[in-house]
Amino acid sequence: MRIVVVDDEAGLRHTTSLILREEGYDVEAFADAETALAALAREDAAIVICDVRMPRVDGLSFLDRYRAAAGRALVVLMSAYGDDEAAIEAIRRGAYDYLAKPFRADQLLLVVRKAVEREQLRLEVDRLSEELTAMRGATGIVGRSKPLRDVVEVARKVARHDSTVLVTGESGTGKELVARLVHSSSGRADRAFVAVNCGAIPESLLESELFGHVKGAFTGASHDRRGLFEEADGGTLFLDEIGEIPVALQVKLLRALQEGEIRRVGDNAARQVDVRIVAATSRDLEAAVASGRFRSDLFYRVNVVRLHLPPLRERPEDIPELARHFAERCAARLRLPTPRFTAAALHALGERPWPGNVRELENAIERAIVLADGATIDAVHLPPPSRGAGDAGGNGHDPDAPTDLSVKRQTEALERALIARALERTGGNRTRAAQLLELSHRALLYKIRGYGLDD
């Protein structure tokens, strides 16, 4: 770690440098501020120890000029004329610490060691910040848990090659984001990324959607149409829910993957395409192969590199960061100030199983922002915990689940119940009820009238 010493006294400059070098630090000493500033402009240091009383440019002026030049080192000022006021002024102007001369070697080393620890912490924060920014990139991947970092690391490695990638994981875990990461980290990043949900397209239309068709191939085919393979030529085709592709169409897909060759519906001529395939599924493809619903040869072709996204319940440490990310994004879209989360809200978020994973969390945060109607999200603004299919007596049916699945109506019903409860608790005092609900008084009056609670 590089330390720069600036002092016009040759003896103290030599002694200070000697003490630090004996501790293993890389030290460079200067007799005046001007020379030191020029050297630091060429190569910055981790720590600068500078005398206050020097001719021409004193220590405080040095500090001002160094910071103005975007110097990032921690600056320790020292002076034989030190007092509390001088120390306070030094700290106010951006010094890390202040040493009063004369000082002992152990005093100097204590200050330097503290500064080194702080610098190492800053470097680690910068590194993690850069890593997080790189992880997110344009893909929106958010999280610092080890399982997620492992997936991102492998995705970046495999991106350099054209191997087919299979992304597995429960619904809502962010499989498309990983596919986009593979694409954006590859040599195909400047070409098209085309995504299709194979389970969302009717079986009768899926072949035409993937491979295109020629005019007259079927009723309604009034002109030639390129399919998604051709749209993705030179880039990446993301086949989401590949396990939903009908067995009859899997043969044609296999040929496209093996030979780079597709044939439009109704066409006699084959066409060459250069497409990198990233597939995803929330199904157990091995079980689908065993039952004959998915061809084994196609499975082996897509399962070259597998990336498994863990469910959110297995990486709860990512939840606070995800919640803040969604809150910031949703608030910007709704043109609202970004709310903060209370400790109770973050605890409640961390305690939930999130069967719908990241997608469910995002919806819950948007709902909370709408209900909070203010700068703070508390636990009361969060939806009731949802339960997965296996959590209701083992039969896949939750007897307490609402039969009406309208988000709008369920949200309104919950909001009405919360307002009624607050009014009951406060004996009808609307001002206190508004405080409990974290609503403005005006907003509460409006909602009371809207829900017919003013009778």
Short description:
By secondary structure, the chain is an alpha/beta fold. The protein has 18 helices and 16 strands. The strands form five sheets. The protein has a five-stranded parallel β-sheet, sandwiched between helices.
Q: Which features characterize this protein?
A:
3 domains, 455 residues, Helicase, Ruva Protein, domain 3, flat, Rossmann fold, alpha/beta, five-stranded parallel β-sheet, 18 helices, 16 strands, single chain
- Runs in which pLDDT lies below 50 for 5 or more consecutive residues are 134-138, 388-402
Helix fraction?
40-55%
CATH topology annotation of the largest domain? Rossmann fold
Count of DSSP H/I helices: 18
CATH class categorisation of the largest domain: Alpha Beta
Distance between the termini: 73 Å
Main sheet properties:
5 strands, parallel
- CATH homolog superfamily of the largest domain: P-loop containing nucleotide triphosphate hydrolases
How many strand segments?
16
Strand ordering within the main sheet:
2-1-3-4-5
How much of the sequence lies in strands comes to 5-15%
Radius of gyration: 32 Å
How many structural units, i.e. domains? 3
The whole-number mean of residue pLDDT values reads: 85
Q: Kindly name the structural category.
A: alpha/beta
CATH architecture of the largest domain: 3-Layer(aba) Sandwich
